[in-house]
Amino acid sequence: MRRGVVAALTALPVVWALAGCGSTVAGGGPERVGATADGPARQRAAEVAAAWPGSAQERVWRSGYYPVGVPAEWLPPDAFHSGGEKDAYQAGRLVLAGGLPRTFSGLAQVRWADGAQLTLPLRSADAVFRSLTEGRPACNGICGQPLTVTGAEPGTREVSTSRGRAEIPVWRFRVAGYAEPFTYPAVEAQQPPTGPAKEVPGARPASFSSVSADGRTVTADVAHGGCERVERTEAYETGAAVVLIARVRSTAQPGTACDAALHLSPERFALAAPLDGRVVLDLATGAPQVPTGAGGGR
After folding, report:
1. Average of per-residue pLDDT across 27-31
2. Domains plus CATH for the chain?
3. Which of 8, 52, 58, 206 has the fewest Cβ atoms within 10 Å of its own Cβ atom?
4. 65 Cβ neighbours under 8 A, 6+ residues apart
């Protein structure tokens, strides 16, 4: 079952949080302060942290577009005027009453506050419209009249990314009856670089969700079975990276049947120093993690 847990952790985009306390700290490479992590988990965390600086993974991470908490859509403040309109939108009942802009180069720019730029494939207005109308579930209750899209225009929006604030292209769809547009990203997020998962006896990886305002508490989710619980959490820290370790123990009693379902437990990790610009790395794969629970757009 444990191998399945590791695979699920590295495959599912879930929000995680970690409660607990111990912290293994290292500085820049060598350890800074004492440790509570031990055995294979501590060794694996040290390997992951040491391999990050100067790696191909780090170069890709530092140069890519990895948004933090950016939604699939920004709806106007008064959405929706009725339950029927909400049901119609969720069921993809939109009709196009005007033309959509045509794209020619098929490319778009993401621009960071420090002046850095990245060219990515442009998601066309037509592709966005089709994503809103195709493959949607049936109406939940009374659908009401379809929403009428009267057109769209390009725009930009500032979002959070792994490299700080960035300006991304968006499509602003005009919908009849609404003064403010329905807005959608015009570029797709890139996938963080990853490697093969490695099972670590006695420990589980965790999926980074958010960080506290003071930067000293990281929140993440830990996957475990029905007859297991998170015993404690630890953070292995260097000057460049943080690796989260969750200790899980069995709670099974003799003769007890344990379900095979995967459970996600929100936990917290205490850090010895603020996270700041350090990257959070996955214990199993060594991959960098984007915080899935933080707010990104405005």
Report:
1. 38
2. 2-64+192-281 (no CATH), 83-185 (2.40.128)
3. 8
4. 110, 118, 120, 161, 166, 168, 187, 189, 190
